[in-house]
Amino acid sequence: MNNQNKSCQNCKSSFIIEPDDFAFYEKMKVPAPTWCPECRMIRRMLWRNESVWYRRKCDATGKSILSTFTPDGPYKVYEQSYWRSDAWDPLSYGQDYDFSKSFFQQFCDLLIVIPHPNLIQKNVVDSDYVNIGVNLKNCYFVGGADGAEDSAYIFSPNLRSRDCFDIYSASDNERCYDSVGIEKSQGLRFSQDCIACSNSYLLYDCKNCMNCFGCVALRNKQFYIFNKPYSREDYQSELEKISPWTYSGFIQAKEKFNKLKLEFPRKFASIIKSENVTGDEIINARNCINCFDVKHDVLNCKYCYRVFENSADGQDAMAAWNSAELFYEVMSITA
Ligand SMILES: [Zn+2]
Q1: Nearest 5°: phi and psi at 235?
Q2: Which domain of life, per UniProt (predicted)?
C-alpha cells in the first residue's frame, strides 16, 4: 500500500497516512482517521482537565467538594471516598444497546447519568488538592503526577518528586524549586532542561553540574558562575556578593543569566539517547515519530504526547505510561 493523501474533515488541511499506519490500524481493528494528527490531538486534549477545579456539591452526600466538573454542568459527581465505596452500584446504570440510536449518542447519555469521581486519584495520602495523581503523599495542588511526596504546585508530566515546589515536566528530583524539564537533580532552583545537577541556581541545558550559578550548556562542572570557573572559596564569596536570596540580587542575576543564554546556540530539539525519532523532549526512545515529551524506554509510537516508562506500540496518545502497550486514541492510561 502507498502513502495516502487525505483532507482533514475538521480543518480541511491535507495529511498523509503511511503504509505502516494502515498496518497499525489493521492490527488495532480501527478505521483509518478522518482528521489530521493535530486536530486529533486537540480533540483528545479536550477530555483532560488537569488543573482547572471548581467548588461544587457532591451529588451523593451534598458535601462541598473540589471537582474538575463545573457545578452547572450536566454531570453527576461524587466525592472520591463515596465514589470508591460500595454505597452505590455502577452496574445499576447498565442498559441494553439501542440499535435505533447511534453509539455515540448512547455513550454520551451514559456519561451524563453515571457518577464521576470529583478528581482522579489513586493511592493518595493526605493530598486532597490533587488531580490525575497516583502514589502521592502529603502533596498540595498537584496535577498529573505519579509518585510524589511533600511537594506542591507540580504539574504533568511529573514522576517521583520529593520536597519539590513549582515544577513542570520533571522526574526523579528532590528539593527542587521553580524549574522545568529537569531530571535526577537535587537542590536545583530556577533551572531548565538539566539532568543530574545539584545545589545550583539558574542553570540551562546543564548536565552533571554541582554548585553552579547562572550557567548555560555546561557538562560535569562545579563551582562555576556565569560559565566561569572559581575555586571553592571564591565561589562562596562571589555568591555572597550576588546575594540571589535577596529580591534585587536575584532579579539582577536573572537578567545577566538570560543575556548569557542568548549567546549559546540552541539545539533544534531536545533529543537524548534516542534513535529514529522526530519531535521534542525525547529521552531513551526508539522509532517514535512526531512525539513530544516521550521518555524512558518508549518504543514504536507516533503522534503521542507524554508517553513514559516502557510503553510501546501506540499511536495518538495523550499521557500513557507504566508499560502501556498497543494503544490508539487514548488519554491518561497505564498498563
Ligand atoms: Zn485537521
Answers
A1: -60, -45
A2: Bacteria
One-character DSSP codes across 185-237: -EEEES-EEEES-EEEEEEES-BS-EEEEEEES-BS-EEEETTEE--HHHHHH
On whether the CB atoms of residues 132 and 94 are closer than 8 A, the answer is no
Question: What's the pLDDT score for residue 157?
Answer: 81
Q: Is the pLDDT of residue 156 over 90?
A: no
Distance 273 CA to ligand 1 centre (A): 32
What is the CA(46)–ligand 1 centre distance, in A? 15
Average pLDDT over residues 43-61: 94
38 CA to centre of ligand 1 in angstroms: 6
N-terminal to C-terminal alpha carbon distance within the chain: 32
Give the pLDDT band of residue 280 (cuts 50, 70, 90): very high
For the chain, the domains span 4-45, 54-118, 190-266
CA of 41 to the centre of ligand 1 (A): 9
